[in-house]
Amino acid sequence: MEIPFASLGKPGDSVDVCVIGTGAAGLPIAARLAERGHRVVLCEGGDIEFSERSQSLYRGTVVGGAYVPLDTARLRYLGGSTNHWGGVCRPLDPYDFAAKPATAETRWPIEHSELVPYYGEAAQILDVLPIGPDSELPGSGLRRIHFSIGESVHTRTRYASTIRDSPRLAFCSAANLMGLETRDGRITSARFTNYEGGVRDVHARFYVLACGGIENSRLLLWSNRQSGGRLIRNADTLGRYWMDHPHASIGQALLFDPAPLGLDRAYDAFFAPTPHAMIARNILNCGLRLHTMGPEQNLALTEDLTSLSPSLKQRIQTMQASGVAPKGIILRAAWEQEPRRENRIELDDTRLDSLGMPRCRLSWGYSSLDVRTLRESVLMLGDYLRQTDIGRLKLADWLTQEPILPPDTGELVGRHHMGGTRMAASASQGIVDLDCRVFDQDNLYIGGSSVFPGCGHANPTLTIVQLAMRMADHLDARLLRQTIV
Ligand SMILES: Cc1cc2nc3c(=O)[nH]c(=O)nc-3n(C[C@H](O)[C@H](O)[C@H](O)COP(=O)(O)OP(=O)(O)OC[C@H]3O[C@@H](n4cnc5c(N)ncnc54)[C@H](O)[C@@H]3O)c2cc1C
Questions:
Q1: Looking at residue 293, what DSSP letter applies?
Q2: Residue nearest atom 49 of ligand 1, based on CA coordinates
Q3: How does pLDDT run across 15-32, given as a tens digit for each residue?
C-alpha cells in the first residue's frame, strides 16, 4: 500500500527490510520478501510519474571518453530505468564468470551455476522469450548466439497490484535516500528527505540499496564520507571498476549466401567469439549484431562495392541475371569492457544537487583491450566471409585507421551501468561479498549491476533480476533464522 512521506519511519515502527529504489533490482526484491510474509518499506526517490525535480538530480559530469549525458542515461521515478529499457535479454555466458586470460579482473567470486536456479523466475518477471542454444560457425572462431527481444516489462506495471494492495509492503514515493547511520557494523537507520525539506529516518533489520549502477556508488561514497569512513572501512575500490557495454556501428556486409549466417530466414543474427577464440586472441567477449538492410541501402552498398572491384561486379551481375540479389547487412557491436580502476564514479564537490548532495562525476574511457576485443571479433567475421566466399565486409572508416579511435558520436554505449560496488572474495578487492552484502555492515545489501565484477557482452537486466531473486531468498532465510532464534 502507498504511504505518505509523513508516515515513513513512524516512532516504534521498525520493519524487516527497507528497500531503496524501484527498478529492476529493488521492486522484485521488495515484492518477493513481502510475499514471503516480511514487513517491507519500499522507498522511491522519484515521483510516481516522471518529474523534472527528481530527474535533475541525475545530472552529472563525464570526464574522458565520449559518453551520453548522465541524466538521459537513466530514469528517476517509480520503475526507474525499466520505464525506457529496450527489453533485450540474454544471460551472461558461463565463462563470463571466470578470469579471462586477457585480464583476471573479470572474475566473479561466484560461479555461473549460482544464478542458474533463478533463471526461470527472472525470465518470468521480465517476460523473457525462449532463447535458443549457441551454435558454432564452423572454422570462424565465432558462435551464433540468441537474445530474447520481446516487450519491455516495466516493473511499475508488473508490480502495480503489489504496490497498491500488499498489506506487508509500504511504498513511499519522493523519499530520497540521503544517508545511512552505522553503529558497530550495523546500519541503524536510513535517512530520507522529500522535496519540501522533510526528513524521516527509517529503522529496519535489513537494508537493500537498489538505486541503479551509478547512484549505488554515489550514495555509498556520500554516506561513507558522512560516517567518517565507518560504513566502508576499505573504500579503495568504491566507485571504481565501473563499466558500460560500448556500442558502435562497425560497417556493412554484402552476402552472396546468407544461409550459413542464418540470415536467409531471420532479419537479424548475432555472433560472439567462442571461448577458445577469446583465449587464442587474448580478448574479452563481444556481441556482433547483423541486421538486414532496407532495399535502398542495399542498392547503395552493392554499387559502392562493385565500383571498387570489377570481378565482384561481374559476380553480382551473374547472380542478378539468375534472379538472386546479394543481401546487404548492417553491422553493429556491443562488447565487454575491461574492468579498470580508472573508470570510476566520484563525488563532484564543486556541484551540489538541489538536495545538497555532491553530483556524480564519471571518469570513463576505452582501454587498448576494449579496442582489441572489437577489432579481433570483427576480423574473425571478415575472415570467415572471405574464406567461405559467402560475402564481403566493408569496415567503418574508423576501424581501418591506426590507432583505432571509437567514434565520439552515435550509440556510444548501452546505458548499462555496471561495477563500482563490485562483488569480491575480500574487502580489499571489492565492496560486497558473495551474498551482495557490504563487507563491513552486517545488514546492508546492494542490488543491481553495480555489483558486477565483469560484464560479458549480454544486456545486464536479466542477470540483475537473477541476483535480486537470489538476494530475496538469502534475506528470507536470514529473517526466518532470526525469528526462530
Ligand atoms: C535507454 C535504455 C535502454 C536499455 N535497454 C536495455 C535492454 O534492452 N536490456 C537490458 O538488459 N538493459 C537495458 N537497459 C538497462 C536497464 O534499464 C537497467 O539495467 C535496469 O533498469 C537497472 O535496474 P536497477 O534497478 O539497478 O536501476 P534502475 O532501474 O535505474 O532503478 C533505480 C531506482 O532507484 C531510484 N533512486 C535513485 N536514487 C535514489 C535515491 N537517492 N533515493 C531513493 N531512490 C532512488 C530511481 O528512481 C529508480 O527507481 C537500458 C537502459 C537504458 C537507459
A1: P
A2: 80
A3: 999 999 999 999 999 999
Question: Is the Cβ atom of 440 under 6 angstroms away from ligand 1?
Answer: no
User: Per the omega criterion (within 30 degrees of 0), is the bond before 407 cis?
Assistant: no
pTM greater than 0.85 (yes/no): yes
Name the nearest CA neighbour of 357 among 23, 60, 5.
Answer: 60
Which of 12, 25, 18 lies closest to 452 in space, CA to CA? 25
> Which pLDDT belongs to residue 485?
53
Grid cell listed for 460: 545486464
Using the predicted structure, report yes or no on whether residue 311 has a pLDDT greater than 90: no
Q: Is the pLDDT of residue 484 over 90?
A: no
Report how far apart, in Å, the C-alpha atoms of 450 and of each of 139, 340, 349, 411 are: 37, 14, 22, 22
CA triple 121-122-125, angle to 5 deg: 85
The C-alpha cell of 216 is what? Answer: 549505488
Task: State how far the Cα of 347 lies from the Cα of 360, in Å rounded to an integer.
Answer: 5
Question: Cβ(326) to ligand 1 under 6 A?
Answer: no
Beta bridge partners of 199: 193
Testing ligand 1's pocket by substitution, the residue of 43, 192, 211 carrying the most ligand atoms inside 8 A of its CB is 211
Q: Whose CA is nearest to atom 23 of ligand 1?
A: 24
Give residue-wise pLDDT tens across range 137-169. 999 999 999 999 988 999 999 999 999 999 999
CA–CA dist 122, 411 (Å, integer): 27
Write the DSSP symbol of residue 243: B
223-243 pLDDT tens trace: 999 999 999 999 999 999 999
